[in-house]
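We were asked to recover a plausible sequence for a given structure. The inputs and outputs are reproduced exactly as logged, with field labels preserved.

PROBLEM: sequence recovery
POSITIONS: 317
GIVEN STRUCTURE:
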């Protein structure tokens, strides 16, 4: 092989690597890591969304709700932290939350352990009320094995979205194409109207809310990672709010599905094809009377306003 041909091949390989690495640094890495130690540990910068900080980014309001006795411990998913932090800010006293800059104290009634941790916490009786997407089969099995009957109360709506690099010419895929990409039937973007590059169908950590949503979307179809995908350009998935707000990044874009873009209007009218419910979850045997009071308030106009003003879509609109 001539030296010039070798140089061309090396250049092509480096170009393909650049696509995947750019996607990694643009989105995937930001889900897992950041130069901020708080983000490295928590996947969301908690200090920006604390309930009683005057500089907090949460939606602030005060509820006319009289809670007596034991305040439920609240936990949940990363993408929902601004929402349930706002709930706490509206109905809990300031001294009920203790955060040392990195972690919540044992006494704090507000916690954050992410989706997997929250499902475990409500089963292990370390949290009373959690705010999450649908559980994985393993999370349901863990509850069953521990004799816990979980109650799921829908409180809002969200779009499950797919993301690609902003310079990817593909802006729309059908749900059938998504399934073919993740099952390994479509391996190149050119098969979906894009460039002649391999597709790297990126997945998330098992037990995360988005991975559980993806497994549910695929149903019985097994997901396969394209072994040559690393040399091409990636596609990933998450929830709209997380992509659009918490890790906003001009290097990626959300795809339309079946010709419908995942904005709030298309979630409200349910024209976007993959809409998931946001749940408040608790143990049915939990005797804390304040749980029912909080849930009734969340489903009131004021509680639904917090969900809407936080960037999600209320279950009642």
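RECOVERED SEQUENCE:
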């Amino acid at each position: 092989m001539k030296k010039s041909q070798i140089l061309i091949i090396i250049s092509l390989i480096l170009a393909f690597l650049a696509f995947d690495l750019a996607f990694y640094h643009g989105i995937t890495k930001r889900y897992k890591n950041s130069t901020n130690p708080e983000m490295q540990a928590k996947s969301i910068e908690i200090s920006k969304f604390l309930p009683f900080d005057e500089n907090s980014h949460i939606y602030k309001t005060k509820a006319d709700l009289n809670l007596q006795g034991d305040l439920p411990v609240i936990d949940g998913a990363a993408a929902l932290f601004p929402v349930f932090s706002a709930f706490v800010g509206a109905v809990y006293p300031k001294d009920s939350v203790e955060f040392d800059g990195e972690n919540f104290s044992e006494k704090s009634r507000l916690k954050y352990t992410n989706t997997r941790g929250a499902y475990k916490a409500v089963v292990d009786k370390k949290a009373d009320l959690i705010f999450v997407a649908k559980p994985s089969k393993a999370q349901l099995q863990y509850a069953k094995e521990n004799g816990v009957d979980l109650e799921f109360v829908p409180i809002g709506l969200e779009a499950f979205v797919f993301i690609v690099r902003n310079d990817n010419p593909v802006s729309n895929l059908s749900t059938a194409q998504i399934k073919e990409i993740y099952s390994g039937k479509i391996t190149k973007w050119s098969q979906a109207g894009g460039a002649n590059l391999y597709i790297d169908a990126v997945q998330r950590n098992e037990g995360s809310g988005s991975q559980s949503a993806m497994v549910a979307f695929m149903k019985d179809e097994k997901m396969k990672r394209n072994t040559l995908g690393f040399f091409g350009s990636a596609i990933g998935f998450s929830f709209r709010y997380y992509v659009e707000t918490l890790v906003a990044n001009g290097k990626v874009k959300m795809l339309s599905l079946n010709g419908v873009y995942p904005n709030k209007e298309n979630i409200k009218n349910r024209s976007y094809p993959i809409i998931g419910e946001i749940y408040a979850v608790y143990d049915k045997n939990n005797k804390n009377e304040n749980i029912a009071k909080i849930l009734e308030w969340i489903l009131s106009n004021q509680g639904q306003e917090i969900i809407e003003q936080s960037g999600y879509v209320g279950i009642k609109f």
